Amino acid sequence: MATVKICGVRTPETVRELRRLSVDHIGFVFAKSKRQVSAEEAGALIRELHDGVSGGESERPLAVGVFVDPSMEQLEAIMDKAPLDVIQLHGSESPELCAAVKQRIGVRVFKAVSLERESRDIPSAENIAGRLDRYRGAVDAILLDTHDPVYGGGSGTTFAWECIPPYQVWAREAGVQLLVAGGLTPDNVDNLVSSFGPDGVDVSSGVETEGTKDLDKIRKFVERVKRS
């Protein structure tokens, strides 16, 4: 069954609702974005996430911090105030930085790979290997997302899903998860999951109404992923 990540969360009310649903990851955006939160804000939301949980992370969604080209010093300073379970990197971060984050900070690392919205060229195994082989052992998951020229990801638009299978092959050989983001909504996510079977899906604007998280859309999104 695919995991679900709801990204761009900013309110304790949303955190409380996501705890009631079968959500696996809650994303807090530290990169430049209209959904950006400070370390202090994220810390308060993570405390809400942990509140009343005695059995550890298996009994709650994992807290994911989304960054674009952060320094190690920035990550360590944020971790002091907001104890993340996962760091998701959306920029041009090197394999060396990814490995250092895992070793020094002791969290899981998701690395985003941006795909062009208009391109329908299916990448070859050699092309993917040349792009990703250096990240073997340095990351826990690869996240496919639609390229955004300003923020790197979070564009709210889909890429050609036909590009997913060769990335899945690479991910399975490398022993990492393959997650998919980019333009997902309650109306299209069941088609993605049933047709391509990613290990997980990631949504932000697709479960919003006028820029605010819509709990009805979130419930529908989660239900349609888990039944696919």
Descriptors for this entry?
EC 5.3.1.24, isomerase activity, PRAI_dom, alpha/beta, 10 strands, 228 residues, two-stranded antiparallel sheet, single chain, globular, N-(5'-phosphoribosyl)anthranilate isomerase, TIM Barrel
Protein described:
- With 228 residues, this protein is of the alpha/beta class.
- The protein has one domain: TIM Barrel (Alpha-Beta Barrel), CATH 3.20.20.
- The protein contains 8 helices and 10 strands.
- The strands form 2 sheets. Strands 1-2-3-4-5-6-7-8 form an 8-stranded parallel β-barrel, surrounded by 4 helices.
- Helix 5 packs across helix 6.
- The longest helix has 13 residues.
- The protein is globular.
- The model has no long low-confidence stretch (mean pLDDT 93).
- Helix/strand-derived class? alpha/beta
Question: Helix proportion of residues, in percent?
Answer: 25-40%
Beta-strand segment tally:
10
Write down the CATH topology: TIM Barrel
Counting DSSP H or I runs of 4 or more residues, the number of helices is 8
Largest sheet: 8 strands, parallel, barrel
Radius of gyration: 16 Å
* Alpha-carbon distance between the two ends: 8 Å
The count of domains is 1
What is the subunit organization of this protein? single chain
Question: Strands across the major sheet, in which order?
Answer: 1-2-3-4-5-6-7-8
CATH secondary-structure class: Alpha Beta
